[in-house]
Write a structure and sequence with these properties.
419 residues; alpha/beta; 7-stranded mixed β-sheet; 13 helices; elongated
């Protein structure tokens, strides 16, 4: 019994152990629940296809246009031109353009290297167009050629004589020889010839008529030898830079006319005043000292020198007023000159300058701006623009300043040609 009981206990224990083993195996082979299937990421829905749109190019007239302007000095003559360049720029910008004027000038009219350096600077700054009133032509030609090579348009004012060795899109101004001839004719008029000044035959002039080269040649080409001999005067000349292009051209023009009149005498040699007022005063003082009487006129080839002659003559009570008329051989001196500025117009209106030929400074700036913009736009620009030198005298002085007559610029037409 004991054995059987023991055997039974062992059997029970074995069965229990077997059950545990079977349960453990079952637990060990039990399969874990499967993970949920991975979700493939999906791209967002594609936007509907659109055609690529190219932006329209900005028209050239809406882009900045920079004009580099350099006159030969800072005197009132060239300040007038600068003022009207700026007036033209303001007019363009009021019409929607974006034009900028940069202006630099040498301190004096004989600072040749300074103007060359200014033009060099404009080239380095890559301005769109360069406008120049040359200090002397030969001095600036090499640097203008450099601008030509880089495709920068160049405008030259103060002359019309085309230069073969530089490319200039437009010359705005006048023939310097012709300008001096006009003044010489006015001087002949004052001292007895036909015209509108002095004591000679008075010619009827229509309102607004230009007293230009054509006008004067029409009066004087038909004079007889006797009529030419009746014009009598004795005077002196103040020139600019001796030997320079502008001074030489003006001297030639003056002599082209007066040398045909046997009783018009020019004393001594021209006094070179370098286009400067103070030097003009010094030249006049020298002429007055050596000619205490019998000096009837002084012709100064530019306005600054002419104002100097006026001041020096007035200072010693030797200035002849236009309203007094000529008296030959006395102490008084009549002043004639070239340029016409707001300052000199005031003196002309007062009779202190008898006659002065306009060189069109307002036109330089006004048309200079117009032609500069046109050149940048690739438009055809007038190769030359003649301002037609003409005489300002006491009766017509106010036609020139303070409000010169300038035609309106059609900026809308230029816009349409400046894509």
């Amino acid at each position: 019994m004991y054995t059987s009981k023991k055997t039974n206990l062992l059997l029970v224990a074995g069965l229990a152990l077997f059950g545990l083993l079977v349960g453990a195996c079952a637990a060990a082979t039990e399969v874990a629940p499967a993970a949920p299937p991975a979700v493939e990421p999906t791209a967002p829905p594609a936007a509907p296809a659109t055609e690529e749109v190219e932006e329209a190019p900005v028209p050239r007239w809406q882009q900045p246009i920079v004009i580099g302007w350099t006159p030969p000095d800072i005197t009132g003559v060239f300040k007038t031109a600068t003022d009207f360049f700026q007036l033209g720029v303001d007019d363009a910008n009021a019409a929607g353009f974006n034009v900028e004027l940069i202006s630099q000038s040498p301190a004096t009219h004989i600072a040749f290297a300074d103007q060359v350096a200014i033009i060099e600077d404009y080239i380095q700054r890559e301005v769109d167009v360069i406008a120049i009133s040359p200090i002397e032509l030969e001095v600036i030609k090499p640097v203008v050629q450099k601008a030509n090579q880089l495709g920068i348009p160049v405008i030259i004012v103060n002359l019309l004589e085309k230069q073969p060795d530089i490319e200039v899109v437009s010359y705005i101004g006048f023939d310097n020889t012709v300008g001096a001839e006009v003044t010489a004719y006015a001087l002949l008029d004052y001292f007895g010839g036909p015209g509108v000044l002095g004591t000679g035959e008075t010619v009827a002039v229509e309102e607004g008529q230009y007293l230009d080269h054509e006008f004067w040649k029409g009066l004087y080409d038909g004079l007889t030898a006797e009529q030419k001999a009746a014009i009598v005067a004795r005077g002196a000349i103040i020139e600019g830079v001796a030997g320079g292009f502008f001074s030489t051209a003006r001297l030639n023009g003056f002599h082209n006319v007066v040398d045909q009149y046997p009783n018009v005498e020019v004393v001594g040699v021209p006094c070179a005043a370098d286009w400067n007022r103070e030097k003009g005063i010094a030249c006049t003082e020298a002429f007055l000292e050596t000619n205490p009487t019998n000096l009837d006129f002084i012709w100064a080839a530019s306005n600054e020198m002419g104002l100097g002659a006026m001041l020096a003559s007035s200072a010693v009570d030797r200035l002849e007023l236009a309203t007094e008329g000529p008296v030959l051989g006395d102490e008084k001196v009549a002043v004639f000159t070239n340029d016409v500025t707001p300052e000199s117009v005031d003196r002309i209106a007062e009779g202190k300058i008898v006659g002065e030929t306009t060189h069109g400074f307002a036109d330089w700036g006004w048309f200079g701006t117009k032609f500069a913009v046109m050149a940048v736009c690739g438009m055809d620009v007038p190769e030359t623009f003649d301002i037609r030198p003409r005489i300002a005298f006491v009766d017509n002085a106010r036609l020139f300043y303070p409000e010169p007559v300038l035609p309106p610029i059609d900026w809308e037409e230029i816009k349409a040609s400046c894509p």
